Amino acid sequence: MTNKSICSSILGTKKGHANATHPISQKFTSLDPHNKTKSEEMTSVVFHLEGALLKSSSLFTYFMLVALEGGGLLRALILFLLYPLVCLLGERRLGLQIMVFVSFAGMKMDKFRIGSSVLPKFLLEDVGNEGFDAVMSYGDKRKIAVSEMPRVMVECFVKDYLRVDGVEGRELKVFCGYCLGLMERKKGNPVVLNEFLGNGKIGGYPIGIGCLGFDDQIFSYCKEMYRVTKEEKRRWEILPREKYPKPLIFHDGRLAFRPTPFASLIMFMWLPLGIFVFIIRFTCGTLLPLSIANLVNSSTGFSSTVSISSPTINHNKPTGLLYVCNHRTLLDPIYISIFIMKPLTTVTYSTSRFTDVMSPIKTVKLTRDREKDKEVMEQELRQGNLVVCPEGTTCREPFLLRFSPLFAEVSDAIIPVAMDLQVSMFYGSTASGFKWLDSIFNLLNPFAMYSATILEKLPTSQTCNSGRKSRIEVANYVQKKIGEALGFECTCLTRKEKYMILAGNEGII
Fold this sequence. Notes:
The protein is α/β, with parallel strands linked by helices. Helices cover 40% and strands 16% of the residues. It folds into two domains: 11-56 and 106-231, Rossmann fold (3-Layer(aba) Sandwich), CATH 3.40.50; 270-502, Glycerol-3-phosphate (1)-acyltransferase. The strands form four sheets. Strands 8-15-14-9-12-10-11 form a seven-stranded mixed sheet, with helices on both faces. A five-stranded parallel sheet has the order 3-2-1-6-7, with helices on both faces. It has a two-stranded antiparallel sheet with strand order 4-5. Helix 4 (60-71) packs across helix 6 and helix 13 runs antiparallel to helix 14. The termini are far apart. 40% of the residues are buried. The model is unreliable at 1-38 (pLDDT under 50).
């Protein structure tokens, strides 16, 4: 049997007309690499995002994220209560219209950033490894994703994180900048269709990858179709992080879990009890000594561990010690104070007044004026120990942002501290939400684990004044040491870049 006949038997017969019946294959199969003619003829690949790439068959999770992060708890509860009706009417039919209406109705679309700041994380964690390999096996051929969800939900994920050329999704009806909660009848992005079709004259050998039960106008132009079955998707593995086309470093939103219907039920059941637990943790943290408050928090599921690799430190020096840590949440300085059992002062920037007032340790505002901030930090060190988070903002993923080098000029008595936090339900940080709620969401978690490694004091050879190192060298050295202790990757990304990506501003309150 020749290469051509082998390929035909696997892939199906080339269609003679655009509207002919699609040949169906029960599994993904790449083009025969020895068949040069067909590989050269093939111009593009069209794939169904939900059916050919995502492992989950339900869309509820993504609409729940939009409803909760964009509309609040009440909107999310309404969507959850309507889910049985959605299932009855079909998630891909009338049920889809219900989810769109509940999630989007009344939302201001010019400020909609959930598709770029929240959803990519959950979509990436739902990509099937086998589906990803099948789509990406076509190399540099033009790739177009077709989605059943509104385009604003998936466009950033498809283009920025998958490096796909185009996306066809349904458009939402908008009036005076507000979404009506309805989708346009006509499905199809005219720009994508024109680029793909070439003004209706399609050439080469376009390939389509879809699933059983789904069809779209654009697939009718494909010369060959592949189908994937539900049985195959059940055997898929989740795409490992090291295969992400673009690393996931920044993401926003409050939910730290995937809000499936069952997980959402657990969340709504926990919230009444969680508010009671929060009041206990918050009251103890603000009224009781930190050591006792830590015991209370541990007994309610908010535990902590510490590892001290530094020898005994002299706290009776004429100037205080400078603790430099990576930044996970607003509680970082508080837990360092608990771990070393000494009072601390922390410097803050762009935090809410509520956070500063309720903090159990002293906080001092920075201004981003280098000389003024340096003077403030030196003054605080003369009075006692100081903790700084030179990243300037929190990072949830195993990455370290660039360390601002100002701390290196202030003192040579630098102690790096590697902080990590594992939460079970909510993230206690945000880029685009209400910052005064950060501590509340932190303490609302059913379970959380704070861990810290207090590293050895910087040798004098690695400091500015005694070691003659530049402030940037010292900052990079401290970043590297903390990264090695945590197993995190060091980056050159900054606070400003994080906020521009997630919130479209520079993160200034």
